[in-house]
């Protein structure tokens, strides 16, 4: 066995050791808190599943159908007549429609990452529960309008 | 039953408590509601926003823990993107 073989074997043993340590650490670390269980559904066990579970709890059947089929959820503004917020299913800018036409795009996000279903629920809660703060925190952009030369 | 759900990268963490048992002074239920209040205040101090969410009603923003609420949902601090 030459020196190269010894080094390769040592690296492989080292990697296996590190993986074993990582697995042992994960197995031994309890969740920070889970009083009363983590979900109302026994089948829910990943972050994405739990976020989907919360979103299903918060939307009615029609809203869920709209989100699945169209890829966005429209929320009527509680305080601005003719205004609708179009929330995309996956994190992108929120469109502000007035009279059915895109007037603005809003960029607002959680300071720490959360699953995409939670982001949809977050927009809905903020718009319906505290629209003015939502608008104050968001960055506003003019909607993107493709130029002639951008079209195929 | 009351529940506090906190959005996080793990999906949502939650704590449940039984309001009737809390009223009756059941120690386990009282401990659960105190834990929920502790988490609520901890998250608020980090900038989280809390809403009381009830069926067929618009969510109501709340700045104080309400042990009588059926469901409180907390979202992380928001920033403009």
The dominant shape of chain A is elongated
Count of beta strands of chain A: 5
**Rg estimate of chain A, integer Å:** 23 Å
| Total count of helical runs of at least 4 residues of chain B | 2
Span between termini of chain B: 37 Å
Structural class of chain B: alpha+beta
SSE arrangement of chain A, N to C: HHHEEEEHE
Considering DSSP H and I runs of 4 or more, what fraction of the residues of chain B is helical? Answer: 25-40%
Which structural class should the secondary elements of chain A be placed in?
alpha+beta
Biggest chain contact: A-B, 42 and 33 residues
Average the pLDDT over all residues of chain A and give the rounded result. Answer: 83
Task: Kindly estimate the percentage of residues of chain B that lie in beta strands according to DSSP.
Answer: 35-45%
What is the rounded distance between the termini of chain A?
62 Å
Biggest beta sheet summary of chain B:
5 strands, mixed
How many strand segments of chain B? 6
- Helix content class of chain A: 40-55%
The ordered string of helix (H) and strand (E) elements of chain B is EEHHEEEE
Query: In terms of per-residue confidence, which ranges of chain A show pLDDT below 50 for 5 or more consecutive residues?
Result: 30-40
Compute the number of helices of chain A: 4
Strand order of the main beta sheet of chain B, please?
Answer: 2-1-5-3-4
């Amino acid at each position: 066995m030459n020196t190269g073989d010894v080094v390769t074997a040592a690296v492989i043993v080292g990697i296996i050791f590190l993986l074993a340590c990582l697995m042992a650490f994960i197995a031994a670390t309890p969740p920070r808190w889970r009083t009363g269980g983590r979900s109302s559904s026994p089948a829910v066990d990943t972050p994405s599943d739990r976020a989907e579970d919360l979103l299903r709890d918060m939307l009615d059947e029609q809203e869920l159908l709209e989100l699945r089929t169209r890829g966005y959820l429209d929320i009527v503004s509680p305080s601005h007549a003719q205004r609708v917020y179009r929330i995309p299913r996956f994190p992108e800018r929120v469109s502000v429609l007035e009279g059915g036409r895109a007037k603005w795009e809003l960029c607002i996000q959680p300071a720490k990452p959360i699953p995409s279903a939670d982001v949809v629920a977050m927009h809905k809660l903020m718009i319906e529960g505290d629209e003015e703060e939502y608008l104050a925190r968001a960055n506003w952009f003019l909607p993107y309008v493709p130029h002639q030369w951008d079209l195929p | 039953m009351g529940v506090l759900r906190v959005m996080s990268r793990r999906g949502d963490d939650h704590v449940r408590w039984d309001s009737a048992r809390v009223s009756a002074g059941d120690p386990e239920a009282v401990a659960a509601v105190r834990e929920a209040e502790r988490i609520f205040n901890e998250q608020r101090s980090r900038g989280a926003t809390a809403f009381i969410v009830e069926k067929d009603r618009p969510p109501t923003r709340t700045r104080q823990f309400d042990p009588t609420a059926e469901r409180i949902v907390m979202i992380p601090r928001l920033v403009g993107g």
